[in-house]
Amino acid sequence: MARTDLEPITIYWRPQVPNPTKIVIILEELGLPYRGEFIEHEDLKKPVFENVNPNGRVPAINDPNTKLTLWESGAIVTYLIDTYDTSHTLTYTTIPEKYLLIQWQHFQSTGHGPYLGQAAWFLMFHPEPVEPANARYIAETNRVVKVLDTWLEGKEWLVGDKCTYADLSFVAWNAAIDFFMKGRPKEEWDPQTKYPNFARWQKSMLARPSVQKASSLAKVEDVHH
Predict the structure, then answer these.
(1) Dihedral of alpha carbons 188, 190, 196, 197, sign
(2) Which of 7, 135, 148, 203 is packed most tightly, with the most Cβ within 10 A?
(3) What is the per-residue pLDDT across 64-81, written as a single tens digit (0 to 9) for each?
(4) Ordered DSSP codes for 106-141
(5) Distance (Å, whole) CA 100 – CA 155
(6) Distance CA 87, CA 189 (A)
(7) How far, in Å, CA of 119 to CA of 188, rounded?
């Protein structure tokens, strides 16, 4: 249930896009009230939205409770956790766990999402095939997934004994892999066989109500809590 002592946080959003989905998951997990502000693709680079995010990308948020406007999904997650996860449901304050969470969050933002985004672009949206780029980003997708699979050997979660914001930062981008690798041969993408720890971890996160809701949103009127 959403907290009633707070005004809704506005999330600038587009449907079925991993980084905005990442923020909705955290909002849901923390029980924070929020509302969606849908940004048309052609408006991302217009002054009306660049006044919110000069980089012209979603997500961004405006929190009327603290009068803060913020962009970059990793920064938004950090802010929401630091400000509203007062019971430390999704985080740790102990060392080394606190810094291991930051490590994995940074890996997701800089070494995971960008490679998967490039893979999606070249495999699905580039106007003509570029086979060297396809090969590079398929290989990089497998490489970063192998990093996670290797770390998760003998572990349920990335850090400690609970699902944290670091784990949940990965789930929407992980889900995108099956979308852009659909129909590729098994030697290029076979997570159940090649990366069983990763596959189990991802399945556990997909079962969470927050992830199911955030992944199902298709219309702006659905984006609320």
Answers:
(1) positive
(2) 148
(3) 999 999 999 999 999 999
(4) HHIIIIIHHHHHHHHIIIIISSS--HHHHHHHHHHH
(5) 14
(6) 39
(7) 12
